[in-house]
Design a protein that fits this description.
mainly beta; three-stranded antiparallel beta sheet; 38% strand; globular; single chain
Length: 77
């Protein structure tokens, strides 16, 4: 993980939920131009509900990707 994770939304909406498990009813749409800064150790899930999107993620490294549930990690299959 890297801190603070700042996400700039550049093109098309992106949907983010703040929870440990995916729940499509808990997502919030972030339109182009939106910016969020999440506190450290915040689990989130992202959904490209409307197709492709473009974001820019900024933080103090190292950058990493963790899956809360290892069976969801495509690298482990």
């Amino acid at each position: 993980m890297f801190w603070p994770p700042r996400i700039d939304f550049l093109a098309r909406p992106m949907y983010i939920g703040l929870d440990e498990q995916f729940d499509g009813d808990k997502v919030k749409a972030y339109p182009p131009g939106a910016v969020i800064v999440l506190p450290g150790d915040t689990w989130r899930f992202d959904w490209a509900k409307s197709g492709e999107y473009v974001t820019q993620v900024t933080g103090i490294g190292p950058l990493g990707l963790e899956y809360r549930n290892l069976k969801d990690d495509p690298r482990s299959s």
